[in-house]
Design goal:
Elements (H helix, E strand, L loop, with lengths): L5 H29 L2 E3 L7 E2 L2 H7 L3 H31 L3 H16 L2 H11 L11 H26 L2 H9 L4 H29 L3 H6 L7 H10 L3 H30 L2
Antiparallel strand pairs: 1-2
Helix pairs in contact: 2-11, 3-4, 3-6, 3-8, 4-6, 5-6, 6-8, 7-8, 8-11, 10-11
Subcellular location: Cell inner membrane; Cell membrane
Organism: Streptomyces silvisoli
Keywords: Cell inner membrane, Cell membrane, Membrane, Transmembrane, Transmembrane helix, Transport
Length: about 260
């Protein structure tokens, strides 16, 4: 829309595809093709098969996928609740207090996720909160890692929110709790669903902290992908990666539909 000439549009599209295909699309295409490959010794696979998907369908992969979905769902909802509460609280603070709140919530993403995993492992390996060896410590780790994104997304939405709606409701005698639940949060619903989708996607792909914490009975799918490739089963790992991407994309599309309905309601 910013380029009016036909030649300029063609130039923009050419540059876009020249950057998009090799940098973004080609790696995903390679993973997709590898998931069907029986062997690959040249530029292209020399054989195609569905055996990798049949293999993972009868193994532990369905349980790993369910583990990832449950972990991401619980962690994203917990992160959304904590991030929204913190963003609402930060809005009432002065500039210095808001900066302190921003620093506290952005700290987990400012350090490597393996550091977060190690800190949780040390903190929750002794009573009174003995979570080491349980699925709960994995969910806590994912929640800590993605809460910053929920906090940042909701905080940005609050900054754009017109205060006239809240002031009008208050001037009509509405209590603060009523204004929050019936005015502010409904206006924030599209941003809340977007933040939840972002947290879910990030949790589905988290690996570094999970590798330090997961118990044998709670193995998320990214750990299975890493384990398969580490054993040299690259094609099986590619099939697992495709399943992970497809499951994440399906949930994100469902959330996008909910967000669209909430926006135009």
């Amino acid at each position: 829309m910013l380029v009016h000439s036909r030649g300029g549009r063609w130039a923009v599209w050419t540059v876009f595809f020249a950057l998009f295909l090799p940098v973004f699309a080609l790696p995903f295409l390679v993973i997709l093709v590898a998931s069907f490959a029986s062997s690959w010794s040249g530029a292209f696979p020399s054989g195609m098969t569905l055996g990798h998907y049949q293999e993972i369908a009868h193994g532990d992969s369905p349980h790993a996928l369910l583990t990832s979905l449950v972990t991401a769902l619980v962690a994203s909802l917990a992160a959304l609740a904590a991030g929204t509460w913190a963003a609402l609280a930060a809005q009432a603070l002065r500039r210095r207090g808001r900066r302190v709140m921003d620093a506290l919530f952005m700290l987990p993403v400012a350090v490597p996720s393996v550091v977060v995993g190690l800190s949780l492992l040390v903190a929750f390996s002794k009573p009174p909160l003995l979570l080491n060896g349980t699925p709960a410590i994995v969910i806590v780790a994912h929640t800590v890692l993605v809460t910053a994104f929920a906090y940042q997304s909701v905080g940005a939405a609050l900054a754009r929110l017109d205060p006239a709606y809240e002031q009008s409701a208050a001037s009509l005698g509405a209590r603060p709790s009523y204004v929050l639940w019936r005015v502010k949060l409904p206006l924030l619903l599209p941003s809340l669903t977007a933040a939840a989708a972002l947290c879910f996607a990030l949790s589905m792909g988290e690996l570094s902290a999970t590798m330090m914490l997961y118990p044998p009975n709670w193995v998320p799918l990214p750990v299975s992908v890493f384990g398969a490739t580490d054993r040299g089963a690259l094609f099986s790992g590619a099939a697992l990666a495709v399943v992970l991407m497809a499951a994440t994309l399906a949930v994100l599309l469902a959330v996008s539909r909910i967000r669209t309905k909430a926006t135009y309601r």
